[in-house]
Amino acid sequence: MQQCLIVLAAMPLVVGLVAPGWATAHAAAPPPQVTITAVEYAFDVPDQIDAGLVAVTFDNRGQQPHNLKIWQLRAGKTLDDVKAARSADALFALVAAAFGGLSMTFPGTSQQVVLDLPPGQFVLVSATRTSVDGEPDYAKGLLKLLTVVAPTSPLPVDEPTTDVAISLTDRGIGVPGQLGAGPHTIRLTNAGTQPHQLIILKLQPGKTPEDFATAFAANQTGSIVCSSDRPGCVGVARAAILYGRRSVAFG
After folding, report:
1. Spelled out in words, what is the top-level CATH class assigned to the domain 4-20+29-250?
2. Looking at CB atoms within 10 Å, which of 101, 178, 209, 250 has the fewest?
């Protein structure tokens, strides 16, 4: 039986989600769609989108894995400051709030998530370090500003129908003991006092959660989890990074 491992990690970031003002005079519609495409090393995405629920497709058309983080920077911080950061601490020190995203997405694949974005200025960042030089994607240009504006005529939007609920707390994860194979739409709720991220990883055949814990401590998780080029790995679990209290992932 194949195993999937769900990992919870606290992030030292502040989340602020604002519910949009929805009109009630019109029938509800699905969340609007936006596609964010990554290559080496640039994002292709509209410069401006409407606030509220948005269905994001992250499409990796590059030759290396990339991820997606959606952040607001602290006052006075710029894209040049992000590009100059060379450690996680230096990078997180620039961030005022985190609004979700998607974890490592392999070349030629895509992932989907529904996020709730308030009006404001955001930065899109890929922070993977998969190239031989060890430099993070954002240092090479895989980052971009995104403006989110209040809709001129806000309409009610239906949230996606979900079949799995996962709750995060400051001490653990509330998750079903077993899931059937195939696609699921997951509602993620953060019931903790700080932001958290959820990453779903598929273990290689014969590996256990204890093996993962040991590899994680040694920063060697690549030897434990499945990837698209690993022998014996049939399918790779989606790895969604979600922050806040209102996120829905598809996988």
Report:
1. mainly beta
2. 178
